[in-house]
């Protein structure tokens, strides 16, 4: 919609101006979820007599299995990831627990963040679990700046 385009443009312009005043891209941690499709066929060897045709193998299941990958990273690389159980999806409470584990991973992998004077800038989209009340409450108390994400 034109209104959404305008909001994105204004947000981009604001971030560019902020970066010109004081670079902040090194402070951003971002993350997202992605369904990962996989197929682990168990193939067995078969031996046939010379001159005999080999046994045919059926095509793999085109619908296969899938799991959700939840991953967070900064400019240096991956900070934390989780593979959810097959069929499991993100809820507000699960996402809050993941953010708690992410904060612990940041403390382990980026200990310099504890001595920095700059706040960590956290970016995620507006998916329902990301804007759930438990998540909002946790992020208010985490001490992170939340980067706005227009529609």
UniProtKB/TrEMBL annotation:
GO terms for cellular component: condensed chromosome; nucleus; site of double-strand break. One of its GO terms (biological process) is replication fork processing. InterPro entries: RNaseH_sf, Transposase-MT_Hybrid, Transposase_1. It comes from the Eukaryota. One of its GO terms (molecular function) is single-stranded DNA binding. This is Transposase.
């Amino acid at each position: 919609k034109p209104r959404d385009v305008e909001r994105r443009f204004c947000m981009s312009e604001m971030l560019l101006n902020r970066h010109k005043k004081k670079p902040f891209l090194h402070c951003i941690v971002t993350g997202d979820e992605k369904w990962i499709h996989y197929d682990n066929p168990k193939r067995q060897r078969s031996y046939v007599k010379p001159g005999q045709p080999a046994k045919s193998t059926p095509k793999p299941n085109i619908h296969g299995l899938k799991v959700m990958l939840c991953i967070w990273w900064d400019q240096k690389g991956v900070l934390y990831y989780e593979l959810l159980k097959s069929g499991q999806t993100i809820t507000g409470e699960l996402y809050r627990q993941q953010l708690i584990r992410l904060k612990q991973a940041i403390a382990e992998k980026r200990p310099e963040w504890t001595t920095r004077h700059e706040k960590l800038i956290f970016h995620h989209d507006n998916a329902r679990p990301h804007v759930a009340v438990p998540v909002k409450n946790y992020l208010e108390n985490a001490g992170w700046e939340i980067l706005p994400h227009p529609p």
